[in-house]
Amino acid sequence: MFSLGILMLLLSLVCLGTWPAFMRLCSCEKELADIIHQSRRRSSRTTFLTSPQDRHPCHVYLDYSFSYVVASSIPVMFQIMSENSNSSIFAKPLLILVAMIGGSLLSLANISMQWSTSVYNAPLTTVVALQSSLCVVLGTSINYFLQPEKTSKPHLLFIGVGSFLIAIVSASRAQILYQIQKRNALDRDEHVNTIVSDGVPLYQKNDEDSNHGSIELPNASFRQHTHSSLNDSEDYMHSRNASSNQSHVQLGLIVAFLGGICIGFFTPSFNIAVNDPFQWYDDGLEVPYANLWFAFAFTLCSVIGNLRLMKGTAFSTIPSTTWSNYISEPWSERRLAFSAGTICAFGNWLQFQGGFLAGFAAADMVQAFPLVSTLWDYFLFHEFRQTSCKVGCILSIMFASYLLGISMLALSISE
C-alpha cells in the first residue's frame, strides 16, 4: 500500500504539472503562438498541442471547471459498480460538508490568483511563490498533526518542507531574471529599429533650423516652452498613475495572501473528510465520494467567481464578456480546456488516493509540480533556451531542491 501510494503521488505530480500548459495554450499570447507555429512548421506535424488559441481567460476557466467535475465523477461510477462499496454517496453529511469546504477553498485560491493578476496587476511570479509557500507550510504542518502516526521521521518531513521553500524561491528568482532579460532584449531591438527607421539625422535637422535665421528663434523658444509644460503635465500624470497602480498591486498581493491561506487548508479538509480524525462517525468517506463532493463545490465556486470576472472592472487587464459569447464558441476550441480539466481532476484524485494510502503530510510532494511545468515551458514554449548562466544555475538549484524535498517526504512516511 505504501509503494502504491508513492506511485500515485508521483503520477499526480506529472498530471498537476501538465494541465497548466494546456491552459496556457488556450489563451496563448501572440509571441508564444508565433514560436509554436514555427516549431510546427519545422516538425511538419500538427497536433492539438501545437495549435494555440486566443480565448477569453474566463471562457477557458469555465470549460476547465465543467470538465473537472465531470471527470471527477468517473471514479464514483466505478465505485458504485464495484461490490466493495458499502456506503451511500449521501451518507455522513458532516464529512460531505468538510469535503465541499475543501473544494471551495481550492477554488477561492484559484480565483484569488485570477483577480490578483488580472484585476489588480500583481506580478504572477510573486503570487505563485506566495501561494505555493503557504500551501506547503500550512498544508504539510496541519496534515502532520492530523495524522502523526503516518510519519515516522518528522524531521525528514520538515527538511523536505524547507527544501520546497528553497525551490519555490529559486523558481521565482529564475522567472524574474528571465523576464528582465527578455524585456531588455526587446528594448534593444526597439531602440535599433528606431535608429534605423529615422529618416533624417539629428545633426541635419539642427543645420536646417540654423539656416532660417533669427526669425525662427521665438517660435522655437515658444515650442520649447510648450513642450516643457507638456512634459511636466505628463510626468505628473505618470507619477499619479504609478501611485495608483502601486496601491492596486498591494491590494492584489493581499488578495493573493488570503488565497494562499485558502490553498493551505484544502488538503487538510479532504484529510478530515476521508479519515475522520475527530471520530464524528465510525469511519470517513470513501475517497471517490469525497472527491466528487470536493469537485462539485470547486466547480460551483469557480463558475460564480468567473461569471463575476466576466463583467470586468475598471482596473481589469482582461476585456469584459458575456455568457452568450461563451456559449457561442465552437466545440473545437474547447478541447484544450476540457483536456486541462480532465488531467487536473485525474491528478487530484491520484493525490487524494495516494495521500489516503501513504499519508496526507507526504502527499504535499505533488507541490513539486513546477518540475514538470518547467519542462513544458522549455520544450513546448521554448522558454529558458537562450538565457544566462545565472538563470541556468538558479534553475538547477530549483530542480535539486524539489528532488531533495520529494525524497525527504517519501522517506518520512511510516510503512
What's the pLDDT, averaged over the residues?
A: 78
Count of helical stretches: 13
> Which of globular, elongated, flat, extended, rod-shaped describes the shape?
globular
Q: Which stretches are poorly predicted, pLDDT < 50 over at least 5 residues?
A: 205-218, 234-242
Based on DSSP secondary structure assignment, what is the total number of beta strands?
Answer: 0
Order of helices and strands: HHHHHHHHHHHHH
Content of β-strand? under 5%
Helix content: over 70%
Q: How many domains would you count in the coordinates?
A: 1
This entry's quaternary arrangement is single chain
Profile the largest sheet.
none
Secondary-structure-derived class:
mainly alpha
Query: Radius of gyration, rounded?
Result: 26 Å
Terminal Cα span: 8 Å
Family: Belongs to the plant ureide permease (TC 2.A.7.19) family.
Main location: membrane
InterPro entries: UPS_plant (IPR030189), Ureide_permease (IPR009834)
Signal peptide: 1-17
Structure description:
By secondary structure, the chain is an all-alpha fold. It has one domain. The chain contains 13 helices and no strands. α3 crosses α11 (335-358). Residues 205-218 and 234-242 have low confidence and may be disordered.
Descriptive labels:
globular; mainly alpha; 75% helix; 13 helices; 415 residues
Question: Can you describe this structure in just a few lines?
Answer:
The chain is mostly helical and 415 residues long. The chain contains 13 helices and no strands.
Topology overview:
Elements: H1 2-26, H2 30-43, H3 57-81, H4 93-119, H5 124-146, H6 154-197, H7 202-210, H8 216-275, H9 287-310, H10 323-327, H11 335-358, H12 370-379, H13 389-411
Helix pairs in contact: 1-11, 1-12, 3-9, 3-11, 4-5, 4-8, 4-9, 5-6, 5-8, 6-13, 9-11
